[in-house]
Backbone:
């Protein structure tokens, strides 16, 4: 089974809100077997707009990534994140 990945590109505008989001989302990532592979606040963007921080989280499968994203706990954290940042977020399946 292929791994699943959550890839986020975030522009933070409320540091306190993002701190609260991380406190909420971190344990939920672990509960769903996720592992943060990348957190880069200064990515080397070669094409397109640089929103800011890039995050890549690996899950055991795309289904596990979806279950994480759709979980009540993550949706509560997401509501906090939406007030504190602008984001592009995708779920993808590895090869």
Residues:
């Amino acid at each position: 089974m292929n791994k699943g990945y959550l890839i986020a590109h975030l522009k933070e505008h409320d540091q306190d809100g993002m701190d609260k989001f991380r406190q909420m989302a971190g344990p939920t990532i672990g509960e769903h077997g996720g592992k943060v592979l990348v957190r880069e606040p200064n990515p080397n963007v070669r094409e397109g707009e640089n929103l800011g921080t890039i995050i890549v989280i690996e899950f055991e499968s795309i289904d596990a990534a979806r279950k994480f994203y759709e979980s009540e706990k993550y949706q509560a954290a997401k509501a906090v994140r939406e007030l504190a940042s602008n984001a592009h977020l995708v779920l993808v399946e590895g090869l």
